[in-house]
C-alpha cells in the first residue's frame, strides 16, 4: 500500500505592503494538512521575513531560477496560491510574461492543470487601469480562482484588515485534489 503524502501548496508572494503577513496563510494551510513552499518575486523578497518563513515551512524560499543540473528545491505543487498578488504580477501573468521565477511557475501551471488561486492586493488607482480588468478576465478564462478584494485608497496603504488570507484555501476547497 502506498504511503499517504501531504499535498504541497506553493504560495507565490509578490511585493505588496501586506506580504509580511504571509505566515498567516502558511499556518492556515499547514493546519489543513498541506505542506507549503514559498516562491517570492525578486521584489517580494524584500517584503517578507525570509528566515521566519523558511523556519515555518521547512523549505528554502525560491525566488531565482536554479542553475542547470541543480536539484529542484521544492516538490511539484498540487495547488498554487498567489497571495498577495500585485498589479504588476497579475498583468504580466495574464500576458504570459515569464521574467521572474514566480511568473514562470504560474505560466506553466496553466498547461500543467495545477489548481491556482489569486488574491489581488492593490489600490484603486491601479485597479482603474483597463489592463487590470482584462487581465482578471483572462485569468478567469484560464480557470484561475480569483479572490474578492476591494481595492484600498491610493497612497493610503491600509486594507490589511480586509485581506482574507483564508479565501485562498476556501477557493481551493472548491476544486478536487
Ligand atoms: C511599500 C510598498 C508597497 C507596495 N504595495 C503594493 C501593493 O499593495 N499592490 C501592488 O500592486 N503594488 C504595490 N507596490 C508596488 C510593487 O512593489 C511594484 O509594482 C513591484 O514592481 C511589484 O513587483 P512584483 O509584482 O514582481 O512583486 C508597493 C511598493 C512599495 C514600495
From TrEMBL:
Pfam families: Flavoprotein. Gene3D superfamilies: Flavin prenyltransferase-like. InterPro entries: Flavin_trans-like, Flavoprotein. Residues 11-139 form the Flavoprotein domain. It comes from Streptomyces coffeae. This is Flavoprotein.
Amino acid at each position: 500500500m502506498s504511503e499517504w503524502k501531504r499535498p504541497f501548496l506553493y504560495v507565490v508572494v509578490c511585493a505588496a505592503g501586506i506580504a509580511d503577513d504571509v505566515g498567516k496563510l502558511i499556518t492556515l494551510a499547514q493546519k489543513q494538512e498541506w505542506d507549503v513552499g514559498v516562491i517570492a518575486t525578486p521584489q517580494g523578497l524584500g517584503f517578507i521575513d525570509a528566515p521566519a518563513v523558511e523556519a515555518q515551512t521547512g523549505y528554502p524560499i525560491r525566488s531565482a531560477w536554479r542553475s542547470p543540473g541543480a536539484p529542484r528545491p521544492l516538490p511539484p505543487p498540487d495547488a498554487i496560491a498567489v497571495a498577495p498578488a500585485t498589479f504588476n504580477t497579475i498583468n504580466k501573468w495574464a500576458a504570459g510574461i515569464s521574467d521572474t521565477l514566480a511568473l514562470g511557475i504560474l505560466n506553466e501551471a496553466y498547461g500543467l492543470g495545477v489548481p491556482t488561486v489569486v488574491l489581488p492586493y492593490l489600490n484603486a488607482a491601479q485597479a482603474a487601469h483597463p489592463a487590470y480588468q482584462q487581465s482578471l478576465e483572462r485569468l478567469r478564462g484560464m480557470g484561475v480562482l480569483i479572490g474578492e478584494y476591494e481595492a484600498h485608497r491610493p497612497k493610503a496603504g491600509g486594507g490589511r484588515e480586509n485581506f482574507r488570507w483564508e479565501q485562498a484555501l476556501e477557493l481551493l476547497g472548491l476544486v478536487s485534489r
